[in-house]
Design brief:
Number of strands: 28
Shape: globular
Strand content: 25-35%
Structural class: alpha/beta
Mean pLDDT: 96
Oligomer: single chain
């Protein structure tokens, strides 16, 4: 399905932020790895979290759910042997479960999205698991991937951090269960350190002890640990909310988003600070972000590695800012569901934005008067690109058609419903 975004001058209303996808997938995993029964309140409902639910069921967890919670009886250190796992298009789920699958004798991760997840690289994690005695067959580091494990060994483990922090997180979930103590050394740079902080926070809540150096480049993990069954509450999701907040910032608006903690460890919380730097009128108190936008924004410079999943929404806001904005240290955007630099900027140009790319930078020459629009644009099956392009459509002179916009369901299935509730002119249309 495609979506038609018609220019919209005003947004108004209140929304509860959707629940965090990152925290939900992590809580689902630690609950599955626990001996006993855990409860997760307010879990996210998205294609990614559904993929984790499906896979932990296949691995032997008992999963029961109602509208507000999921109750999981875990399989502990002993996942059920399974021939195949289908993670859909969820890169983090794939990487976390590649590590856990090393406890199984023979698992193949299938490739249902050859044009998206099927193109993403996993070689750094494969090298780490291979060094631990796991036999892995793969297609130059890409899906389909078959893992023949059963008895991975701890010890000194190296992992590269310059493509994704998910490889490190995968090892942090696995190593506490091993018979040996482990020391994990991160090679090169470590991208998205704030997301590693989320992993460590969830592991600590699950009763796991990990000793981390302050710079997150070395970790000492005692072996023979057991995950504890616990009760968890999922906080609101800043990455998805970034698009709603940016939409409010580029229009005349009076919008409140609830369930966004001021002290959240989500790096994308920085979207609030960036919008403030852009002189967007807003307040953030009592877990409520209140935007009273006037459509007038100033250019900004920002280190995007601190808030990877909010960068595209901030870039969309910068398209309408006065001056030239620069988002740097964002090369890891190239290794997502699509190349979120080249592919995204190409679509922005079609809509009339003045943008430039470097290998690890996005430069935006703002057009406060708005952009032309009136074109059909391709979101490359990427949920973050879809949401960001919808922001552009609100301020374009003519409507935009976003192709295959139903892929927004990967993280935020009701995103367009929420925009509509605020007064945005968006409607689903049949694709050609």
């Amino acid at each position: 399905m495609d979506v038609l975004v018609t220019p919209t001058a005003t947004l108004q209303g209140e929304l509860g932020a959707l629940s965090s996808k990152n925290y939900t997938t992590r809580y689902l995993l630690v609950a599955a790895l626990a001996d006993g029964t855990s409860t997760i309140y307010y879990p996210a409902h998205s294609e990614d979290s559904d993929a984790m639910r499906r896979c932990i069921r296949d691995l032997g967890a008992i999963v029961e759910e109602d509208e507000e919670k999921i109750v999981i009886t875990g399989f502990g250190r002993h996942p059920k042997p399974v021939d195949k796992l289908d993670v859909g298009n969820a890169g983090a789920v794939l990487r976390f479960l590649m590590a856990i699958a090393s406890l199984c004798p023979d698992v193949t991760f299938i490739n249902r999205y050859p044009d998206s997840l099927g193109k993403r690289p996993h070689l750094d994690l494969i090298h780490s698991l291979t060094s631990m005695g796991v036999d892995i067959s793969h297609q130059d580091g890409k899906l389909p991937i078959t893992i023949k494990g059963g008895n991975p060994k701890g010890g000194h483990i190296q992992v590269s951090g310059n493509i994704s922090s998910q490889f490190l997180s995968a090892l942090l979930f696995l190593t506490p269960l091993l018979d040996e103590d482990s020391e994990i050394e991160v090679l090169h740079d470590l991208k998205s350190k704030v997301v590693v902080g989320q992993t460590l926070e969830v592991l600590q809540q699950a009763g796991i002890v990990i000793h981390a150096d302050e710079d997150y480049m070395r970790f000492r993990v005692p072996g023979r640990q057991r995950y504890q069954a616990k009760t968890y509450t999922v906080q609101g999701d800043y990455p998805g909310s970034a698009a709603v907040l940016a939409a409010a910032a580029v229009t005349r608006s009076d919008v409140k988003l609830h369930r966004l903690p001021v002290d959240s460890k989500q790096g994308e919380r920085a979207v609030v600070d960036v919008l403030r730097m852009m002189e967007c009128p807003l307040t953030h108190d009592n877990d409520i972000v209140h935007v009273q936008g006037n459509g007038k924004l100033k250019a900004v410079e920002f280190d995007g590695d601190h808030a990877t999943d909010a960068v595209l929404a901030m870039v969309a806001a910068a398209v309408f800012a006065e001056g030239t904005s620069r988002f740097y240290n964002v090369e890891n955007l190239r290794y997502k569901e699509c190349d979120r630099i080249t592919d995204y900027l190409n679509e922005l140009r079609k809509a009339g934005a003045n943008v430039e790319e470097r290998q690890s930078e996005i430069i935006v020459h703002g057009r406060p008067e708005g952009v032309e629009g009136g074109v059909e644009i391709n979101a490359h099956y990427d949920h973050r690109v879809i949401m960001a392009l919808s922001i552009i459509g609100l301020r374009a002179a003519k409507p935009l058609v976003i192709k295959d916009a139903h892929h927004v369901a990967k993280s935020y299935p009701n995103y367009f419903d929420h925009l509509k509730a605020l007064g945005a002119n968006v409607e689903w249309i049949e694709g050609v």
